[in-house]
Write a structure and sequence with these properties.
This protein is an all-beta fold. The protein is built from no helices and 11 strands.
Length: 136
């Protein structure tokens, strides 16, 4: 792995129980300061989206399409030295009009640098544009 990779994001999307491909050409990344400060290592997608890059600190928005649904991940990167990993399994239920996501993310504790891992599940009403925010 590139030693300069500071953020890794993995996402899988299921619609009505069927895994759907993610088009890597639909992925956009924006942040609250200059994007040219980042250095992308890779963005790959097929059935699973993987984004790896080095980054300065700030709030990042990762947007991509899964069929007709837009998924937006709002994720922070608090320090240039911090190494973050985010893993999502996103499930869309078109009948009940719900989107749920299982998440696992890790980050270093600021004082000891010990890796903290958080997991959970969230459910919210389904929309054409769905935002997931994760802050530690």
């Amino acid at each position: 792995m590139n030693p300069q990779v500071k953020v890794t994001i993995n996402a899988e999307v299921f619609i009505d129980g069927v895994q759907v491909p993610i088009d890597e050409n639909s992925v956009t990344v924006t942040m609250d300061s200059e994007l040219n400060e980042t250095g992308f290592s890779s963005i790959t997608a097929d059935n699973k989206l993987t984004i790896k890059y080095r980054a300065p600190y700030g709030d990042f928005e990762y947007a991509f399409y899964a069929e007709d649904y837009k998924i937006i991940l709002n994720l922070p990167h608090f320090n240039e030295w911090e190494v973050n990993e985010y893993n999502y399994v996103i499930s869309i239920d078109s009948k009940s009009q719900q989107i749920s996501y299982d998440y696992e993310y890790s980050y270093p504790e600021e004082e000891t640098y010990k890796t903290i891992t958080k997991t959970g599940k969230q459910t919210q009403p389904l929309q054409k544009e769905n935002t997931i925010s994760q802050y530690h």
